[in-house]
Structure formats: structure tokens, C-alpha cells
Specification:
two-stranded antiparallel sheet; alpha+beta; Beta-lactamase; 13 helices; 305 residues; 5-stranded antiparallel sheet; homotetramer; 2 domains; 10% strand
Chain lengths: 305, 305, 305, 305
């Protein structure tokens, strides 16, 4: 196994030069683009690592899976999906068009920015600080790492430049999808995106989902099975932005990427995989990370299809 | 002449029942929908009035003409039209779609909300208060009425509910169309929309435009001729929201409407007309106002075509 | 006057190098791009010419004005505008999007391709040949030239390559806007676009419109006044494709362009102008033609605004 | 097992009243809406049936899976996916918008109408008749039923009314996606949609896909494994029109529906399922069929997630 993931990383390395770090968040563009790391955690707890697997990076859109979990736990699926759809979209992750053209004005799914912001408006807590504390707690439990925190620099950077997300949020406020204060909801969103993790952390998250909600470390049930299925399904249909369809064909695994360079993948019944490589392709996915996962999936026959 | 406008008002009255006041701004929905008034001012200063011509109403989108004048005066036409287009659009006044689909990301024209907000970001002044003072001064000069002010209630109502406009503004901030602070630009926009006028005020504005920039009262040149042509052209192609084409065919006059119920029309070389009727059709135009103008245009053969 | 139009042509010449002939119709791309000509005909019949005013070219979209006239004569305005809108659009002339997004599925106006094809489906006649004969008769009467015919080469070229127009027509057939046989309607459309004219012919058409329907040659009334107003209004709001707004500002005249290189302009109460220059700008309008008209309008103060 | 599928059908029955047969194809609207049937075939050949499983219906969009298989076999995946995308879409199955707004003009995937028509243009054969013969042969082999044919009535009905599909095809012809004769490509498409099958036939197709290409009856390899994965992936991300995301969540199986009322589902490594119920929901999927599959998936824990 160690050998396979070493080879996978080596394979992924060959593609790093074709990508580059996210440019639209100033803080993210400063990162060293030549990193590539992987962690694999089986649902029985066994694990392997390779490359820059200890490098810290911000979780970005991968956090949308955890936010979705919390919203469903807090409000129930019926409430959540009355305001956010379940359908994939051929539009870019930050597109605003469908909010105007679709009759219901619902964001199409919880994995695009509009949907994720709507999801954040449903997370409960007395204040934004309390809400974010709850989100952090969930991250720490699911990743089995009590030292997880967030990067103030990245948070401030996103907050200072997140005008497109503000446009999405105000549009949804106008159509009644978002109920609270727009800037507070965005604050939670920017904070959650700036949570810092390593490959091991997101591999653990993937392993919990792979194990239908049971911790690979303690054997404790952390999430109900139906909820882990819900999340894995969204990861397949919408997890890799508007390259989700191609990823499903080439790799065939539930996965969620972030512009920080991470990809969290989950092999149902088997393992969680965390990869990190900040050089992104034009869709915003880690270019080396995708190639590493593609190699691994083919080599180990992991596709769910 | 008095007889004709009396008949025109009577004709317009017949249609009031088919419309209703703007609902999306709480403060506007409280108005008495049965009002209808008209003022006509020739470029030589002669004038006539009929109906509820002394009723005060907020100028709303009619202010976009004055804001455009100020931006062009402050920055020059080249600067202004590098950031805002000149083309009519078949989309609704508050549509955001074109900002995403058009390559340049420019709002299509200065008469839709997106364009008007962008225009407001170009008006000069040390602070928002100073900028609004300059806008008010311009209103007072062009309407020849030094007591013109704005309604704090309507301003506060729009500010509290203007989420769609915030979405437009943040989207344009993201794409570099707007340079300053978004909330400050919006503040100026909401203030300018809440300026209170009567039919006489906007008839005077229309008369100044009709006279190529010369005051019907003092004979003083208030605006350069080229600028008044620019404004009248936009009034024809985009002045009546996405009913501009039909209005051009049925009435044939440069005109700008506002959801407050006012319509400012300008008959080149002849006269300015101000009408007020808060019952709106589904496009957001005064339903009685349009019918009054249609009657007048047909009766007096005013169409420019 | 002769001097002014000579200078205008000279001015227009300076811009020819920035454009190029239409490429999407093979037959049109073969033309000599360095031609530029103008004819001016006053409503009293006086006229002047300059440059390549005798060059023949295909009328293309300018024919949409004549087709609109015939549909309104044949069916009445109410019938026509129940199926085709009156609004300008910010989309390109061959755009199909609005047919899907707008609830009524109506093409926005009779000057875009979709609208013009719908208009053609309303022209009466026992067969396509009979219909086209009627259209040709109307051209001959309005242009006061009984030798007007069409180019079989251009007709065949358009017919062989007009797939986008076929897409528009079938879409409208599906939504019930078009009633007859799609290929027959398209046949009439391709034929009408291939009608060959000179600057003199379209100047005469513009002069008839300028004179509210009266022939400048015979003094005979050829069209009802209301119909000429309707056409001139559409020429202002939608006559120059998605550059209509800018043209209205810079030139200020009702005008209709075609990708054959012609522009037919009408100065209400004064004159018709025909210009021809096959080098087009990126919106599909004659680049030298626009500049010639702009010079003329400024020099002679012709703007209607 | 027999008991479970009997209960599943009974469950599905309860929802039939909320749907109705396809109205847009005249021939389809005449069917008895109260039918519901199911066939299940394990990859070892064992099988069960319930309800109206012997009723014949036209395969409609389910044929898109077979057409995709043939295009990839004939041209290779690289050629195919240079012209058709791999991404799901939030738009309706017959939407034309993305063809205009997306830079590449490629239809988003092979399961929407535009993509399926493009796919049909890649199937090889000397004539349309030969091509359709090849398609029929493939159907017969994959469904293990040599008597499969097509309904001339439904074919003629679709051909006579398929204007939206003609619009899609001509649009793609214009942008170079389709190379051959548009009407010939459409002819193949209409023919393939009119192929008549029963629940048993499509259950067999699903079983071949479930078995990675091996026939449950003969044990013969009919398709390469990679190709069956490709098809199953598209079935998950785009198989149920713009309800694919919700179906993935509620049922969790690769499936492809048709407006004829059939749904072909494939449980990887286990079985194929064919259901038929002509009452459709507003997305165009068999309403009873979906509920039957949902019951079965939950009861037997079949979800792939």
C-alpha cells in the first residue's frame, strides 16, 4: 500500500506544472505550488502517508460538507432542502445566473457557493462566534484532531475581497432564501473556509464518511448513516465544481475539493483519502491531487461504478 | 391646451384600476393609488397643469437621468462609457444575468439599476454627504426649485430592503466596475431615489432637456447641448424599463419613469411634461401616466418618429 | 450638399481598414471591402450621390423593415405583436437564449433574426413563390425601381449555411410562434435577404419613411403614416443590432443595417439616406457606413433627439 | 425477493395518480397511465417480475445509453468527448441555452437531448437504415431479445413534432458539433427513441452494465468493462434529467429514464432493474417507477453511496 501511494504521488507530481495556486484570494496565491501530499486512512484505522502530507492548508470548499452536515442536524433535511436544491449544475461555482432564471430562486445544491452560504444561514448558535465554535467542534470531532483552528490571515483576506459571495448572499436575502444578517452569514462562511487542516485531517473526515459515520479510531458512531450517504452523494454529483462529471468518470469516487488545494475523497466501505496540492487547474481543483487520485483509483480498482 | 391636458388626464384615469403601487419598497406601497396629475412646461416657460399635479412623490429611477448628467460632467463621457454601456436590454431593470454573461461585465446602460449604481460611483465629492449635496443642487437647478429635498422615510425603507441592489453593486465591485465602498455608493443611490418632487419639477427637467439645456425660466444655459441629447437618447432606448420599445412605438417621446409613479417626458424643441400616478403596470411604469402621455402625444402629434 | 456628402464619404473611408466583409455567408466574403457609397434623397425628390453609390449589394437585414410592413398590412398590428415583441435586446442578432428564458417565448422584436423569421411566417400568399413575388413588388414600389430582383448565388449560399436561422425557426415552430412549414418560411427569409439593391434604392426607401409614407417621386401615398412611424421607431431602438443604443447616441437617426454592407437611414420630415460599405465592424454593421452617417448627422444637425 | 418486488410495486402504485403520460408526443399521450411493472435480473441470470412487466413501451431516452456505447465503440472516447461534454447540468433536458453561452458550444453531456443527437451523428453506417440496423442489433444483443423492433407510429409522431430537437440539431450543425445531414441524424434519433421494449429487456440491459459487460445469460463478454463504467457514471450524474441529483440521494443507483415511462437501473455487481409506469412527474420521469426503485433500494440497501 505504501508503495502504491508513493507511486501515486510521483504520478501526480508530473502534472503540477500545468496548474497554479488560486489567484482570487490574495493570501492563497503566496503558497509554494510545488507541494503534493497524501494520507490514506482505512475505516479500521490503518493509515499511510506520502509527500507533503503534514503541510497545513485552508480547507475552503471542503468545509461545505461539514456545514451541510450541521445544517441537516440542526434543522432536518426537509427544512434544508426546501431552501437549497439537490441538483448538479453546469455553471461555475460562483455563478449567480440560476438564482435569477430558476423560478424557485433556490441555489441548485449545497456545494456551489450560493448553496453553501444558504446552508450557513441555517446553522444554529446564539452568535456568529458561537456558531463558528460549533462548526470548529464538528471539524475537530470528525477529523479526530482537537487542535484544528482557522487562519486569521486567510479569513481576513477572503472577507476583504469576497464581493462575489456578497452578491450571491444579498441576492438570496432579497428572494428570502437567507433569513439572517447577510454580513454575519458571510462571516461564518469566510471563517469556515479558513479552517486549517492537513491531509491527515481530511483523510479522517473521508474515512468517517466511508464508514457510514463510525470513527475509524474510536469505533464511536459520529454521524447517522443516512447523513453520510447524503454527503457522499453530493460529493459525486457536485463535489468537484463543474468538473464533477469528468471526475466521476475518470476517478469514480465521492470527493470534495477546495481552492486551498485539498481534496477529500471517500471510498465507501473502505477508506478516506486526503490529498493536498495547491497548484489548481482552470476549474479550481488541485491538478496534482486529481491525478494522484486517478492513479490510485485505477490501480486499486476503487471506482464505485 | 388646458383642455387637451384635462382630457388626457381623464383618459389616463380610466386605466388606474389596472395597476397598483410599488410593493417591493414598503414605504411606497402605502400611497393612495387613485392620484393622477400632469404639468406641461413649454421651452418658453409657458405652462399648464391638471389633476394631482401638486402631489409630492419620490423621484426614484427618474433620478438616473440627473446622475448620468453629473457623472458625465465630472468624469467625461469616455470615462463613463468605458464602465457603463450604451445598449438597451430586454432584461428586467434589476436583472443581474448580463453582468455574468457579457464578457466586459459592464452594465448594459445607465438606466438599469446596475448601470445607475455604477454611474453613482463616478460622481465626485469628498464624502457621501457632499456628493448628495451636489446631486441635490443639480436637481434644484434643473427643476428650478430650491426647496427640493429627500424623504428620510423612503430612503430608510429602501436602504433596509435594497438587497437586490446590494447584489448588483457587490457583483460590479468584484469585477472592478465600481471602485469605492459599496455601501457608500448604495447610500448615494438610495438617497437620490428618495428625492421628493412634484409634476412641475419633473416637467421643468423635461423642458430643460427639450430646450437643449437652456432654462425655460431664465434663458440661462444649464447644460451643454450634447449632454441633453445623450440623456434624451437613453430615455428613448431604455427610459421605460423593459417596456421602452413599446412606449417608443405608442408614444414616441424621450421619457424616464420611476416606481414612485412619476414619468418625466421631453418633447425636443417644444416642451417638458411631468406626470404622476402611483398605480404601476407589471413593468413598473405608471399605468395612468403612460395612458395620459399616449393620449397627449397622439392628440398633439408629438412623436419624434 | 454635394460637398458635404463627398466629405462624409471621405471621412468614412478612413475607417474601412478596421472592418471586414461578413464571413459567415460564403458568398458575401468574396466582395471588395474597399467600396463606400452614399445616396441622399429628399422627400421632395431632390437627390445627391457620392462614391460607389451604383454598386449592387444584397439587402440582407434591411429587408426586415419591408417584411414588417407587409406583415402588418396583411394581418394587422395586433396579430403581429401578439407573436413578436416590441422591445430592444442586449443580445446578439442571432441569439436563441431569450426564446427559452422568456415566458411568452415571443422573439423580442421584428429586427432580430428570430423576430424577422416569425414576421415572414405571417406574410400572405398561395405559395412561397407568390409570397416572394409580393415582397419583391413591395420592394420595387417603395424603392421606385422596377428592376429589383434577387441574387440566386447569395440565396443559395444562405440557404446552404443558414443553420442558426433554422434553429431559431424550429424553436419557434415548437412553441407555436410559427405556424407554417419551417423550411418554407426560411426560404422566404433567405430569398428576401438576397434581394439586390443600390444606395439609391435604399435611400428611396428611407425617403418614403421620412415622408410619412408619401413617394418623393410621384407624391403618391404608398404607406399609412402610422406604419412608417412604427418602422422608424424599431429602426431607432433595434435597427443596428446590439449597437443600436450607441448608434442612437452618436448618430441619432432611425436606421437599419444589413450584413451585406448597406445601411438605410431616414431623417423624419427631411430625407432618406442609403450608404454601402461591405467592411463590417464586429457587431455586423458597415464600419465606413456608420462613420459616414455620423459625419453627416453632426455636420447637418440631423439627430432626432 | 418476489415478495419484496411485489411490495415495491404496490408502494409505487400509490403515487401513479400524481403523474400523467408525456403530452408533447401525441402518440405517447394515448397510453393507459395506470400501468406499473418491474423486472429484476441478477448478474447470474436469476430473475423476478411483477405487475405489468410484459407491457411494451417505447424506450425513448433510455436509448441514449446504447447510442453512447456505440459512438464510443465506433469512434473512441477521445473523439466522442471532444464534441460532447461530461458534466451534469441544472437545465432541462431539451434546453438550448448552454449551446449559446458556453464557449466551446459543446452539449454538456450525452444524456441531454442535444448531447444525444450529437452522439447519434457519430454512429457509423453507410446509410441511416444501416445505422439504425446496427443500433437495433446492439439493442437485441444487450437485451438478449432478438425480436426487438421499433414502433412506426411513435417514430412518425416524434418526427412530425420534434421541432425542439430540430432546433438543437441545427444549432449544433451551425457550430460544427454535428457534421452530417441534420435530418438524417434526427431520423436516427427519432427511430432509436421509438424502439419498443418491456421491463425484461431493460432489466437485462441494466444487468449487463451491472456485470461490467458480461451477459447474465450466456456469460459472454458483450462490452468492455471501462465502457460500462462510463455509462453507469453518466446514469448517476445525468440519467434522470434535472432530477438526477435528487434521485442519487433518494435511490442511489445508476439509472436512465425515458418519457415512455421506463427506467433502466443497474446495481453494480448485483443486478439490473427495469421498471415501467407511463405516468410521469413534472421532470419527465416515471413517478411510480421512481417510487418503486426508492422502495427497493431502501429495503435491500442497494445505494452505491
Amino acid at each position: 500500500m505504501q508503495e502504491i501511494i508513493d507511486r501515486a504521488i510521483k504520478h501526480g507530481w508530473g502534472y503540477i506544472g500545468y496548474g497554479k495556486p488560486a489567484a482570487y484570494i490574495p493570501e492563497l496565491s503566496k503558497v509554494n505550488p510545488n507541494q503534493l501530499g497524501i494520507s490514506v486512512i482505512q475505516i479500521n484505522g490503518e493509515n499511510w502517508n506520502s509527500g507533503d502530507y503534514e503541510a497545513k492548508f485552508t480547507i475552503q470548499s471542503i468545509s461545505k460538507t461539514v456545514a451541510l452536515i450541521m445544517a441537516v442536524v440542526d434543522r432536518g433535511a426537509d427544512y434544508v432542502f426546501a431552501k437549497v436544491g439537490m441538483e448538479p449544475t453546469g455553471d461555475a461555482f460562483n455563478s449567480i445566473i440560476k438564482l435569477e432564471t430558476i423560478k424557485t430562486a433556490k441555489p441548485l445544491n449545497p456545494m456551489i457557493n450560493a448553496g453553501a452560504i444558504a446552508i450557513d444561514s441555517m446553522i444554529q448558535g446564539e452568535s456568529i462566534d458561537k456558531k463558528f465554535e460549533r462548526v470548529l467542534d464538528m471539524f475537530r470531532r470528525l477529523c479526530h484532531n482537537h487542535s484544528i483552528g482557522n487562519s486569521e490571515q486567510v479569513y481576513n483576506s477572503e472577507k476583504a475581497t469576497g464581493f462575489r459571495n456578497r452578491a450571491l448572499a444579498h441576492f438570496m436575502k432579497d428572494s428570502g432564501i437567507i433569513e439572517g444578517e447577510v454580513e454575519e452569514v458571510l462571516d461564518l462562511y469566510f471563517k469556515q473556509c479558513s479552517v486549517e487542516v492537513t491531509c491527515k485531517d481530511i483523510a479522517m473526515l473521508g474515512a468517517v464518511l466511508a464508514g457510514d459515520g463510525v470513527s475509524p479510531v474510536t469505533g464511536e458512531r459520529l454521524l447517522p448513516r443516512s447523513l453520510t450517504r447524503l454527503v457522499k452523494t453530493f460529493m459525486v454529483t457536485c463535489g468537484m465544481y463543474d468538473a464533477s462529471g469528468e471526475f466521476a468518470i475518470r476517478v469514480g469516487l465521492p470527493a470534495k475539493s477546495g481552492v486551498g488545494g485539498g481534496i477529500m475523497a471517500s471510498v465507501p466501505g473502505k477508506m478516506g483519502i486526503g490529498v493536498y496540492g495547491p497548484a489548481l487547474d482552470e476549474k479550481g481543483n488541485s491538478i496534482g491531487g486529481i491525478k494522484t487520485l486517478e492513479y490510485l483509483s485505477n490501480e486499486m480498482d476503487l471506482s464505485i461504478f
